[in-house]
Design goal:
Length: 425
């Protein structure tokens, strides 16, 4: 498989990541208008934001298992089509319950994206390129959040929140056609077939040892390496979902920005998130080359990013000016995204290709329990205190505790990895 063909596939996944977060951020940026139009309070909006992650978490695992069973291209095509459709259908919501249903279905439709992308990368990229490939694809998601601000800000001004969601959904439908067309040409063979000159490089290369090939999803789900990685990812997602769901409303409520200014202010911090993904991948690679300790290089970047993010997140609610808050949030998201690629890379490091979709989905499922909890708790805090300060402090505490726990678990992760590591490619 040529290098250019591999990176063309990764480029399509990069664009899909942009679309994924553009669609996901649409309702967050429109939330002040939705809240006023449908007469919802902060607690109810918390449930709306959380409903996305409930559907999303369930299909993280199911989507990963489906990618292992049926091939990631087919699964991702269905996912793209479904999430675009449900994004558009959200515009038809007339109250809390219809909004909860459409948002849950939208989250479920987006759920397979992460684990399915991991499966695609595992099939097509050699081990030496995997971390950079994961970082490249993962860096598309913060760019989607960056794009969401100006795009949705303009659409909300011109046509209101309902038509804004319809326009974004149409972009998704167009990309679905492009993805299906291009991947059909690039991947003509069934993914279950052994690797040949024209098929994925990793289709069977990771299953050369009998003890590895017999391991199941449950074997890996119970390992210290995967558990520690998933719990660190839980904290990451708890903090991330706070920024994704509530940042626009925070700017409207505390700093009294209008919808367009709040949309722009909410999108700016994700620029540094994009930089953070690449900085973290490069830093982890450098630490590995210096120490020769693969999981240590992932762990130290995860822990450092979570700890620095905790400091920044604690200060977001304390800054007196709106643009000062944008600056602090930018630094916090840069730090958070330092570990963004490493959570997926750990799974690629220790899991055979046969079940990398399933184990990635399991890890993502655990992580997105944080995504379910964060919007609900934030909504309850805001409703009770009429302030976001305690919500930012709680997220900072979750991040700091996870950083300390990750460092404490690093020895057991390094020791356990020896029993999990499949044959190298």
């Amino acid at each position: 498989m040529s290098i250019s063909a591999r990176w063309r596939i990764a480029s399509l996944l990069f664009l899909a990541g942009i679309l994924n977060y553009l669609d996901r951020m649409a309702i967050s940026i429109a939330s002040p208008a939705i809240k006023a139009d449908l007469h919802l309070n902060a607690v109810q909006m918390g449930y709306v934001f959380s409903s996305f992650f409930a559907g999303y978490a369930l299909l993280n695992l199911v989507g990963g298992m489906a990618a292992d069973r049926f091939g990631p291209n087919r699964v991702l095509s269905i996912s793209l089509l479904a999430w675009s459709a449900f994004c558009g259908l959200t515009a038809a919501a007339g109250g809390l319950w219809s909004l909860l249903v459409t948002r849950t279905l939208f989250g479920a439709a987006e759920g397979p994206f992460g684990s399915t992308s991991a499966k695609v990368l595992n099939l097509w990229f050699p081990k030496r390129e995997l971390l950079n490939a994961v970082a490249f694809v993962g860096s598309g998601t913060p760019l989607g959040a960056v794009a969401a601000g100006p795009i949705l800000g303009l659409l909300l001004t011109w046509c209101g929140w309902q038509w804004s969601l319809v326009v974004v959904a149409c972009l998704g439908l167009c990309f679905t056609i492009a993805w299906t067309t291009f991947t059909r040409a690039l991947v003509p063979l069934p993914l279950a077939e052994p690797a040949t000159a024209g098929s994925p490089v990793n289709a069977s290369a990771r299953e050369t040892a009998d003890d590895v090939s017999r391991k199941t999803l449950l074997s890996y789900a119970g390992s210290p390496v995967i558990i520690a990685n998933a719990l660190a990812y839980f904290a990451y997602t708890y903090v991330l979902s706070l920024y994704l769901s509530w940042l626009p409303t925070f700017f409207v409520a505390k700093h009294h920005l209008d919808l367009r200014a709040a949309a722009l202010g909410s999108s700016a911090p994700w620029i540094l998130g994009f930089v953070g993904v690449w900085a973290g991948a490069l830093l982890a690679g450098r630490i590995f080359r210096s120490t020769g300790r693969l999981l240590y290089s992932r762990t130290i970047v995860q822990a450092g990013g979570l700890l620095a993010c905790a400091v920044g997140t604690a200060l977001v609610g304390e800054v007196p000016s709106a643009w000062g808050a944008v600056g602090v949030a930018s630094v916090a998201l840069f730090a958070l995204y330092l570990g963004g690629a490493t959570f997926w890379a750990v799974v690629q490091d220790v899991v055979p290709g046969r079940i990398v979709g399933s184990v990635s989905g399991y890890t993502h499922l655990v992580a997105n329990i944080g995504g379910i909890l964060s919007p609900i708790l934030t909504g309850a805090i805001v409703q009770r205190t009429d302030s976001f300060n305690a919500a930012w402090l709680l997220a900072a505490a979750v991040s700091a505790i996870a950083a300390v726990a990750v460092l404490g678990a690093s020895r057991s992760r390094q020791a356990a990895s020896a029993g999990l590591r499949p044959a190298s490619r």
